[in-house]
């Protein structure tokens, strides 16, 4: 981030406009009223609580899906849409959400997103049908897409020097932990069956938390003066969303509908529409606008290779997580609590890798990422082989979960740093937006593609606890068959880093 030079004395409690070295008008850190200390701890708790809630919701539903399926009498395709509908709308809006914050004030857009997310969570918890739940999940994703981009900006504007570094470190830790803690929390909430509500507390728990965060945010977050005039690129947003829907929806619905003609036509149209998106972005840039994905950002080899590796890694993670959750409950008949707790070693591995990789010498970071991709791929294959006969996995399963988690932890966090390491400060915000969007899109595609492989091969799951030996074996073999392409895709992530390894020798 470029150095900031303040151009006027700010009003007490407000964020003043500043001009950076690259000529872009930005907001400066808020000045505390005279005689008062800024409530930095409260601000940090609010924004980290919000990002934890948003990212937790991307995974907490995985453990609940078998119960949702039984309660709402829905299909496997609907379950995939319940999971991926959130991530699609979330991912598609991240860059636009960041620009709305710059135009209308980070605080205003954050509050709007948080209120939308909280209200949609209430709608999810009360949804009477799968269609209503899917629609509410999409609205939830819209709220997250408005809220989350403001968090990084609010941290940058509120903290300076070592305090900013500590805040960003906590932010990265929350991201790493929330993604997998959602599995454990989901299992505990579903099994608790609070007041006979089954899976619904998975969403309803967000309501009191969201309301508390709203009250705290209104009181604590600084009021900013929006100064950015950067365009929103609505044509780019529309074409990107259309391309994603053309890819994801037929992958989700195709296997249960026996691949009717419309699914083939949609998949065939996805690539041309992505091409149209590229042309739209170039046209916006030629007119002096602000494309969602600036071409100069994509000319960075670090960003392109890092984003590609991140895409393959996160797609495999999300797809296998969805499939494994289905297998544990619907195939093996595990309770939601046991299924959720089964992912505790995964959470430990991810947290360990995310928090310790920087302690290694810098020259090891690129080889470490490639080795970690291979480690995660080995974890997928080993879990698939261990569970293949329909057994419980015994004491070996936690060790393999830990292996999988370490591979993810030593891949995801380093890739986020690597991809931005050589980006020009003037392009830092756009590059960050691209890199924040990639893993969310990857998760949507991973659940659609890999989840469809599992659901197509497994027998129709029944209620948790009602699985028999034949369905357990069929589900286990489907999990093994899913692990093969997941591992192959993860190894493609390792290959994406190889050009950088050769370049830096």
Specify the structural class: mainly alpha
Question: What is the count of β-strands?
Answer: 5
- C-alpha termini separation: 28 Å
Overall mean pLDDT score?
79
* Helix-strand sequence: EEEEHHHHHHHEHHHHHHHHH
Structural Rg: 22 Å
Give the overall silhouette.
Answer: globular
Neighbour order of strands in the largest sheet: 1-3-4
> Uncertain regions: pLDDT < 50 for 5+ in a row?
1-38, 461-467
- Strand-residue fraction? under 5%
How would you characterize the largest beta sheet?
Answer: 3 strands, antiparallel
Helix content: over 70%
Number of helices: 16
Main attributes of the structure:
mainly alpha, two-stranded parallel ribbon, 505 residues, 74% helix, disordered N terminus, 16 helices
Describe this structure in words.
The chain is mostly helical and 505 residues long. The chain has 16 helices and five strands. The radius of gyration is 22 Å and the shape is globular. 53% of the residues are buried.
């Amino acid at each position: 981030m470029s150095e900031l030079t303040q151009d006027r004395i700010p009003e007490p409690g407000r964020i003043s406009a500043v001009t950076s070295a690259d000529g872009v008008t930005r907001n400066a850190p808020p000045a505390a009223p005279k005689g008062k200390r800024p409530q930095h701890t409260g601000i940090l708790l609010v924004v980290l609580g919000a990002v934890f809630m948003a990212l937790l919701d991307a995974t907490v539903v995985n453990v609940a899906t078998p119960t949702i399926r039984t309660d709402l009498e829905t299909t496997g395709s609907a379950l995939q849409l319940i999971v991926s509908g959130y991530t699609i709308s979330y991912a598609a809006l991240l860059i636009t959400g960041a620009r709305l914050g710059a135009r209308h004030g980070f605080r205003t857009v954050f509050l709007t997103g948080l209120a939308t997310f909280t209200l949609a969570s209430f709608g999810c918890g009360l949804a009477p049908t799968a269609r209503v739940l899917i629609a509410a999940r999409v609205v939830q994703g819209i709220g997250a897409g408005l809220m989350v981009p403001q968090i990084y900006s609010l941290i940058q504007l509120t903290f300076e020097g070592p305090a900013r570094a500590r805040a960003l470190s906590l932010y990265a830790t929350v991201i790493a932990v929330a993604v997998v803690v959602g599995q454990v929390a989901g299992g505990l909430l579903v099994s608790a069956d609070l007041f006979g509500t089954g899976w619904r507390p998975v969403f309803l728990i967000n309501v009191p938390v969201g309301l508390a965060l709203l009250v705290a945010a209104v009181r604590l977050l600084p009021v900013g003066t929006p100064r950015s005039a950067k365009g929103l690129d609505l044509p780019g947003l529309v074409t990107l969303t259309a391309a994603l829907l053309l890819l994801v929806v037929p992958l989700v619905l195709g296997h249960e509908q026996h691949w009717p003609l419309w699914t083939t036509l949609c998949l065939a149209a996805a690539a041309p529409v992505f091409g149209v998106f590229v042309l739209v972005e170039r046209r916006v840039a030629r007119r002096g606008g602000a494309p969602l994905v600036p071409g100069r950002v994509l000319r960075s080899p670090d960003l392109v290779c890092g984003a590609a590796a991140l895409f393959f890694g996160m797609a495999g993670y999300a797809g296998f997580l969805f499939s494994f959750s289905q297998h544990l409950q619907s195939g093996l008949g595990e309770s939601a609590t046991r299924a959720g707790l089964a992912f505790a070693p995964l959470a430990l591995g991810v947290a360990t890798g995310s928090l310790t990789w920087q302690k290694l010498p810098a020259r090891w970071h690129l080889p470490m990422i490639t080795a970690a991709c291979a480690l995660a791929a080995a974890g997928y294959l080993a879990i698939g082989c261990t569970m293949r006969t329909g057994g419980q996995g015994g004491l070996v399963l936690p060790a393999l979960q830990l292996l999988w988690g370490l591979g993810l932890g030593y891949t995801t966090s380093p890739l986020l740093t690597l991809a931005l390491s050589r980006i020009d400060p003037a392009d830092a915000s756009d590059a960050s937006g691209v890199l924040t969007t990639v893993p969310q899109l990857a998760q949507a595609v991973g659940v659609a593609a890999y989840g469809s492989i599992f659901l197509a091969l497994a027998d129709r799951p029944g209620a948790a606890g009602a699985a028999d030996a034949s369905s357990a074996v069929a589900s286990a073999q489907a999990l093994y068959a899913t692990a093969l392409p997941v591992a192959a895709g993860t190894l493609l992530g390792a290959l994406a880093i190889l050009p950088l390894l050769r370049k830096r020798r």
